User: Fold this.
Amino acid sequence: MRKFLHRTISVLTLSTMILVGSADAAQERAVAIDTSRVAKGTDAKVTQLASPSVEKRTQRSFFSSFKSFFPFKANNVVNDKLLSSVKVFPNPIVDQISLSYRLDKQSTVSIKVMDALGNEVMTLLNQELDAGPQSHVFETNNKLTNGFYFIRVSAGTETVVKRISVL
Assistant:
């Protein structure tokens, strides 16, 4: 039991020293003096101005100090979403479906209407589209009966599903 307590105290002491050391380093980096050169249009003189030091406070969590302590990196997840900002409007739908979304790179996009059981009711779009914001309007022409449906937008390996109501 004594060995366990001794090791626990050693780990806590080491962690505290790491935390205090990284907090001091962060505080030193946060204080900066802005120096800039200003040249007047007609004068050839260049003056150097130094603004008073401004202390910038950064909010950090307690655990952010331990990032370099652990051998693995949890924050290196790259957010490479191909399909984003999918919106279906108006909802409930009467006779047309308006859809907008953003593609981050050129890919094949498939837009399908699914019933509540997951059966495909109709395909609205299936083609290669360029990157950037996309906007489509589809006429339903009374092909959908009243009820709940799902719009499935697929691009590459990503799929976004939105629920709609048909009146």
Q: What stands out?
A: The helical segments are 2-30.
